Q: What sequence folds into this?
């Protein structure tokens, strides 16, 4: 077992992944832009690093759980501007491993592998799926691609964080490609679920009854069952925000556009999330895409949702 792991980003997913690593017995360094979050985590075990450079120097495997490619760039190579702090790449030792867990353009991930190789750093393209609860219990899914050498050093840590670690290739790109295809389906399913629930409300169907019937019928999907529960509760606390799907479906369309491949359903879903975002719901839960439909009365808030 690789003895020392660094994890960057203690948000909804990263915090749970850090718990899983600590529970598995790894020596763990953590960093978050909210220094108090790192210190609070380390109170129950682990080391809170004050800087990214410190984490890179102390860790054999660095797991990065941030939102997008731009944040990953900053984590690795430092923030822009004269006051920007250095990233972790400069202090990581040759032969160490960087595990990238964000949803990104596959071509960017392929290029990042080459950039890190110039510094002697191994790379695993490892987008994640499953939600905060599965991250905390070590039951999420990782869609990974990397060299045998990288897996040899980081494989045990990956297995500690996820119930399913799919090894999809020996070089970067395959993991990110599979993840954006997953996001195509997730975004389309949420948009379709919102459209179906909105039609039911418009036609005067009881929302709870509709939810009960659909979740026990052939029209059900995981996204309908999960996200329409948010709508029934009237709770749009962002477990996954509208703007996440503006970004992710944008990546889907960019990838398809490069090979002139048509994606009519993904294009429509992307426009729906764009409309929700510009209407003021950008930071609400992605189920708030239902708010773009006119002439419906949504359920009022009942009780807060548990993370899912």
A:
């Amino acid at each position: 077992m690789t003895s020392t792991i660094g994890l960057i980003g203690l948000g909804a997913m990263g915090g749970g992944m850090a718990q899983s690593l600590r529970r598995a017995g790894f020596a763990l360094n953590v960093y978050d832009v909210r220094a108090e979050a790192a210190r609070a985590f380390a109170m129950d075990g682990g080391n809170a690093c004050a800087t990214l450079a410190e984490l890179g120097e102390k860790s054999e495997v660095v797991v990065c759980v941030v939102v997008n490619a731009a944040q990953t760039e900053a984590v690795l190579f430092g923030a822009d501007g004269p006051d920007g702090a250095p990233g972790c790449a400069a202090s990581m030792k040759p032969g160490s491993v960087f595990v990238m867990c964000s949803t990104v353009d596959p071509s960017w991930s392929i290029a990042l592998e080459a950039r890190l190789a110039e510094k002697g750093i191994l790379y695993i393209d490892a987008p994640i799926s499953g939600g905060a609860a599965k991250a905390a219990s070590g039951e999420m899914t990782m869609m990974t691609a990397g060299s045998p050498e990288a897996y040899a050093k980081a494989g045990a840590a990956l297995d500690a964080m996820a119930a399913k670690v799919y090894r999809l290739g020996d070089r970067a790109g395959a993991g990110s490609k599979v993840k954006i295809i997953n996001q195509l389906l997730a975004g389309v399913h949420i948009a379709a679920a919102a459209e179906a629930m909105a039609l039911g409300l418009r036609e005067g169907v009881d929302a709870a009854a509709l939810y009960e019937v659909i979740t026990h019928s052939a029209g059900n999907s995981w996204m309908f069952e999960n996200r329409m529960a948010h709508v029934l509760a009237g709770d749009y606390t962002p477990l996954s925000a509208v703007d996440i799907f503006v970004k992710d479906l944008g990546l889907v369309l960019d990838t398809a556009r490069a090979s002139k491949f048509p994606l009519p359903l993904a294009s429509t879903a992307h426009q729906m999330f764009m409309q929700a975002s510009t209407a003021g719901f950008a930071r609400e839960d992605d189920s708030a895409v239902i708010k773009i439909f006119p002439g419906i009365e949504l359920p009022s808030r009942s009780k807060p949702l548990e993370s899912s």
The domain at 179-292 is CATH 1.10.1040.10 (N-(1-d-carboxylethyl)-l-norvaline Dehydrogenase; domain 2). The mean pLDDT is 94. Residues 31 and 49 are 5 Å apart (CA to CA).
